[in-house]
Amino acid sequence: MLIGAQLYTLREACSTLEGLDETLKRVADMGMTTVQLSGVCAYEPDWMAEKLKAYGLSAPITHFAYDRITSDPEGTLKFHQTMGTPYIGIGIMPEKYLKDMTEQGLAEFLGIIRPAVEYFAAAGSKFMYHNHWHELAKVGDRYALDILCDAFPADHFGITADVFWMQHAGVDPVEWLHKLKGRTDCVHFKDMIKDADGKSKMVANGEGTEMDYSAILKACVDTGVKYGFIEQDDCGGQDPFDCMKRSFAYFKAQGFKG
To answer: Which of 51, 151, 163, 219 could be cross-linked to 173 through a Cys-Cys bond (beta carbons 3.0 to 4.6 Å apart)?
Structure first.
């Protein structure tokens, strides 16, 4: 498993092409060789392919615009192929379905994305869905995430497993990593503490108190996770680059490479 940078963590520095260029260089200088393209400014795939090559990086996965994926699967696939990006992801389903987390709402969402999912799979790429806590709610007698996964084979529909949000939802990330084996080529890592009110807060990896990262990392290795991306949505006022460096140092200390 390679450890990389989820650029959403560094999104404020990536609001312009110049800033995105500099951020890619800084990530490479940290020793990482892989990034997830998410939360950054608009870019052309040729430009990104050139920058990735210049800095010795790959971008195996994106969080891409849901509307572009569903309205233009062909163009979306070509965009990703230009960058050598096999995993085409979304960060969350549209809000209307989060508010309507019912069998009917999920069926509507699945029906809309199905043509794109199948088109990508036929071309050797893979659609990836990133979980938050919403998908670990029960819909009837099943978890919403089970309903999503049951709709497609594992090689068509992957889960970018965010272990923080699994923990936040009250389920065991280790159990779910094993349950989702074959779908979780990519995983998001951030650590957790609880504040005085018992609310979950994000911290750099290795600095938390609520998650068993030893067991989580073993489960990732045992289930064949290819990429673990450092993602800290909220750095609590600290410099996101410093948080990224500390997280990466933690993973290197556990024997993982960038």
So the answer is: 163
On whether residue 101 sits in a domain, the answer given is yes
Distance CA 57, CA 85 (A): 12
Q: Is 94 helix (H, G, I), strand (E, B) or coil?
A: coil
Domain count, the chain: 1
Give the integer Cα–Cα distance in Å for 115 and 71.
Answer: 10
- Average pLDDT of the segment spanning 223-247: 98
Q: Residue 126 domain-assigned?
A: yes
pLDDT digits (tens, 9 = 90+) for 155-190: 999 999 999 999 999 999 999 999 999 999 999 999
Query: Per the confidence metrics, is the pTM higher than 0.85?
Result: yes
Report the distance separating Cα 174 and Cα 241, nearest Å: 28
Which position has the token pair 């068993």?
A: 212
* Residue 31 within a domain: yes
Q: Single out the residue of 111, 105, 173 nearest to residue 144, CA to CA.
A: 105
CATH code, domain with 28? 3.20.20.150
